[in-house]
Write a structure and sequence with these properties.
This protein is mainly beta and about 290 residues long. It has one helix and 18 strands. The chain has two domains: about 140 residues, no CATH class; about 130 residues, no CATH class.
Length: about 290
Amino acid sequence: MKIDRIFLFAVVFGIVAAPIWAVDFKPDPAFEPGFSVYDTVADVVVQPDGKLLVAGCQTNNGPCAPYFKRLNFDGTVDSTFNAPLNPISTGGGFVASINPLPNGQYLITGNFQIGTARTNYARVNGDGSIDTTLVPGFIANHVGAMTVAPLPDGKFVMCMDRTINGENYKMAHRINSDGSPDPTFRIVFMDGFCTDLEGLPDGKLLISVRVNGTTSQPPVKPIHRLNADGSKDMTFDVDLPVGSYANGLTRMPDGKLLVLAGRDGQNNRPVKRLLPDGAVDLTIPLCSGQT
């Protein structure tokens, strides 16, 4: 859930900045993670103990190789956390996102190998070891295959289409906790493509989409709440116009939703906060500007 998320990056940066930067906003010399200018940090998660989980790709004087590691307070690598990820056979690879799970594990996405198996995802234990009950699966080298939403039952939804049992499951599909495709979840009420996902505690799913302007039949809005089978939850009606789009979703602890919304042909893509029913929250200045 952290690919094209400018607003989420800003939030994460704000959280991470506290232990890393001094109060004058200059780099804190006590924190030195050892990255080079050629390395990439694609995602950061702050643990309750203040340590950082970081993921991306690192050059090591060669092709950029995937990594998922934990950093101590001073930026040094925590040697007690070891995620054995390998580059893909043709060289390179990366980790795109870190999704913490309620049981202390992490669902990571990207383009890498576990052993000799190429995959877009892996479930990682608290010590960095791989949970082998999730069979590796490579869907595509595409941003959608690296955008996932974990669900309370251990399944997760991937933000792209897939052929299952000879049929096309458009926009998004659900994967069982063992890595097998789940054909009981299917989106049939709209066309377009998925831009982000957010799993909900009750097993429902928020999805942001982009369609071909107002020509989609039927015309649809850019954010929907889906039932467990992929059908539209009719009790959620986002207060954004048909023909607009949303590129990112982040659910807040109070059930409200931060979204990055815009409209084709406009340069501005303001952040908005939505109420749990989809109405725009007008109590904060984020809601100013066009949609």
